[in-house]
Design brief:
Oligomer: single chain
Largest sheet: none
Strand content: under 5%
Order of helices and strands: HHHHH
CATH class: Mainly Alpha
Shape: globular
Structural class: mainly alpha
Length: 89
């Protein structure tokens, strides 16, 4: 698995673990939802370290924890996420 695939997989795993939509995670990581969708779908050929830092920070993780072989058990959300349209009733 290459580094882009690893970032995509870990992003999806953590997002789902915390019950976030792509829109919610994009807001937490200060990026567009479309950009996050491209990352998760492996449509980016390269991902900058600063992008990985923003995603990791959204889960209160350092980059090395985010990229570790096993899913980090200590992840938590950096801040409360306003509910997206998906979670509104």
């Amino acid at each position: 698995m290459d580094s882009v695939e690893r970032v995509a997989r870990r992003t999806r795993e953590l997002r789902q673990k915390h019950g976030l939509t792509q829109q919610e995670l994009a807001e937490l990581a200060d990026m567009s939802e479309k950009f996050l969708q491209q990352i998760e779908a492996c449509r980016k050929k390269e991902i900058w370290v600063s992008t990985v830092e923003r995603i990791a920070a959204a889960f209160c993780l350092d980059v090395h924890e985010f990229l570790a072989p096993d899913l980090p058990s200590t992840s938590k959300l950096a801040k409360k996420v306003p509910s997206s349209r998906v979670h509104r009733r």
